[in-house]
Design brief:
4 helices, four-stranded antiparallel β-sheet, 2 domains, Immunoglobulin-like
């Protein structure tokens, strides 16, 4: 038992030693941080938002970060990490931008990101009609089976009358009616989901 505990402690220690952290703070805060890309697409969602702890593999001695903040100059930093520290700290004072062209470019980036966020939200909302379509399809198939069972009873009845015959006849009508309604709901929901997915995709990209 003691050996097992010691082995677990060794694995846990090795697991923690494989990752170091770079803590990045910016002035002002809430800047977008992109890791490992010298020319990131700022219209995409950032890897981190300052202040942030950025995990770095212990085998890496450097980490490249790009910082984006509206109305401030885009910043690219290649950070050298000391080998003897598990956590390093970096504070970046961002330089205000007075270039109207750059500020307009940043506003377009934010607008693009907002559209992507909206598009993803619309695509996620398609889950609801998809779930309705799937449920309605299952109901349709179930009702079709019930209608088929009732039809077999009617077909195999020696006399086209009686309580069981009338009951099977009514079951057949009810099941067929429910199946038609569920089928229409399924088709409508599937079409709605497809429209939402298409609209979300177009807005996102």
């Amino acid at each position: 038992m003691r050996k097992l505990i010691l082995l677990l402690l060794v694995f846990v220690t090795l697991g923690y030693s494989q990752t170091r952290y770079l803590h990045v703070s910016t002035i002002p805060a809430k800047a977008d941080i992109f890791v490992g890309n010298s020319a990131p697409d700022y219209s995409k969602f950032p890897d981190h938002t300052s202040p942030a702890f950025i995990p770095v593999d212990s085998s890496e001695s450097q980490v490249l970060i790009a910082i984006f903040h509206p109305e401030f100059t885009d910043t690219l930093i290649n950070v050298n990490l000391p080998a003897d520290k598990d956590t390093s700290y970096l504070i970046v004072s961002l330089k205000p931008s007075y270039d109207d062209r750059q500020i307009k470019r940043q506003q377009k980036i934010l607008s693009r990101r907002s559209n992507r966020n909206l598009g993803r939200g619309i695509m996620l909302s398609s889950i609801i009609p998809l779930a309705v379509a799937a449920t309605s399809t299952a109901i349709t198939l179930h009702q079709i089976n019930l209608a088929e069972d009732a039809r077999k009873i009617l077909k195999n009845s020696a006399i086209a009358s009686g309580e069981k015959y009338d009951e099977a006849k009514q079951d057949f009508k009810d099941a067929r009616s429910t199946a038609k309604t569920a089928r229409n709901v399924s088709i409508g929901s599937a079409v709605g989901a497809a429209l939402l997915l298409s609209a979300g995709f177009i807005i996102s990209f």
